[in-house]
């Protein structure tokens, strides 16, 4: 059932804007997982209240954050690697991946996803050809 396949939203910085739109519009509560990176939770927690509400309302299944300017800096590709097992399963279950943000972030995300999916024999080129991987980068 295509409408129930998981969606994996990955972004950083202002890339949260379009991804938030997908979550906001997810009234059918399709499984949707957000991985988002920004500098610091105190100053850059964009959409924090909305994300919490969407998670509580079922529009987001999970929200994972990375902060690059804290005592333990991490980037979005780091949290993807930490969640490799779940990501591999979501993609194997027909998941679609949407990436939004800067070019450097997108390149790091692509490298992390390639490493995560390689053991399953799934490549990003295949996902792109199937319409299951899209990037909006700047």
Describe this structure in words.
This protein is an alpha/beta fold and 138 residues long. It is built from 7 helices and 5 strands; from the N terminus they run E-H-E-H-H-E-H-H-E-H-H-E. The chain has a 5-stranded parallel beta sheet with strand order 3-2-1-4-5, sandwiched between helices. Helix 4 packs parallel to helix 6 (103-117). It is globular.
Write the layout of secondary structure elements.
Layout: E1 7-12, H1 16-24, E2 32-38, H2 41-44, H3 48-57, E3 62-67, H4 76-82, H5 84-92, E4 96-101, H6 103-117, H7 124-129, E5 133-137
Parallel strand pairs: 1-2, 1-4, 2-3, 4-5
Helix pairs in contact: 4-6
Widest sheet, order of strands: 3-2-1-4-5
Give the N-to-C terminal Cα separation. Answer: 33 Å
Total strands: the figure is 5
Please bin the fraction of helical residues: 40-55%
* Largest sheet features: 5 strands, parallel
Overall form = globular
Give start-end ranges of low-pLDDT stretches: none
SS content category: alpha/beta
Q: Order of SSEs, N→C?
A: EHEHHEHHEHHE
Key features of this structure:
138 residues; alpha/beta; five-stranded parallel sheet; 7 helices; globular
Quick description:
The protein has 138 residues and is of the alpha/beta class. Helix content is 43%, strand content 22%.
